[in-house]
Amino acid sequence: MKRVVVTRSAEDVDRLAERLTAAGYLPVKLPLLAIQAIRNVPAIDDVPLATTVVIYTSVNAVRHGFDLIANEVTRDGLVTIAVGAKTRDALKKKAVHAESPAREDSEGILALLATLPLSPTHVILVKGEGGRDLIETSLGGLGIPLSIVECYRRVWPDIAEADFLSAVSVETPSVIHVASGETLTRLTDLCWVHGVEIFDVHTLVVPSQRVSDQARELGWQSRIVSDGAGDKALLEVVAHLS
């Protein structure tokens, strides 16, 4: 039975573990991060609705930022973009139709923006605190006004040494799912802290070539780039490996 280490946030790890179990795999839950809502989010200034685009960069952006957007800006006429299929599905549950790029990352969002029938004159970016700033810098370079709504932050809970070693310090090669560059850094740091040299033992499944390149630089030998960071993309990779 294929063993899959799941490093998603505490809010999402159970759901993905259940899907892996249902598919016949052995999930090992190792949530390396948690999500904390930011309560004091600034109000959004008046924006031109007809040519405004709202971008949600993650499911957590929908969870913690959607109500704010709905309260501040009417949805009529807005174009909504989700970073990927999972975020798009979260918006669909809110009765919002969203477009999502084939490439589920910042580069994909920027490419999708370039194909819109009407060029946006304003963008509302709903995201977590910190992270990549490619969208911000690219839109700034184009002179497009941007309202940034940082509605959550990633926090890094303490991981008991025994729990970490139980998850990763095994001789049987496993799949380790890493959904972001930040999580990859956290995983690698914990390996060094606990003296675990597993960089040539397990296979990392990462969401983009950018994160794969980061993993290579950190010493991870076996890397597979999935079709985004969603659950379905991971399941497809694991099925191919089985």
Strand-residue proportion: 15-25%
CATH topology of the largest domain: Rossmann fold
Helix content: 25-40%
* Extended strand count: 10
Strand order of the largest sheet: 2-1-8-9-10
* Rounded mean pLDDT score: 90
Give the total of domains: 2
The SSE string, one letter per element, is EHEEEHEHHEHEHEHEHEH
The geometry reads as: elongated
Provide structural commentary:
This protein has 242 residues and is an alpha/beta fold. It folds into 2 domains: 3-33 and 156-241, Rossmann fold (3-Layer(aba) Sandwich); 37-154, 3-Layer(aba) Sandwich (Rossmann fold). It is built from 9 helices and 10 strands. It has helices at 13-22, 59-72, 85-92, 106-113, 134-142, 161-168, 181-193, 209-218, 231-241; strands spanning 3-6, 26-29, 34-37, 52-56, 79-82, 122-128, 146-155, 175-177, 203-206, 222-225. It has a 5-stranded parallel sheet with strand order 2-1-8-9-10, sandwiched between helices. A 5-stranded mixed sheet has the order 3-7-6-4-5. The N and C termini lie close together (8 Å).
Concise summary:
The chain is an alpha/beta fold and 242 residues long. It contains nine helices and ten strands.
List the helices and strands and how they pair.
Layout: E1 3-6, H1 13-22, E2 26-29, E3 34-37, E4 52-56, H2 59-72, E5 79-82, H3 85-92, H4 106-113, E6 122-128, H5 134-142, E7 146-155, H6 161-168, E8 175-177, H7 181-193, E9 203-206, H8 209-218, E10 222-225, H9 231-241
Parallel strand pairs: 1-2, 1-8, 4-5, 4-6, 6-7, 8-9, 9-10
Antiparallel strand pairs: 3-7
Helix pairs in contact: 2-3, 7-8
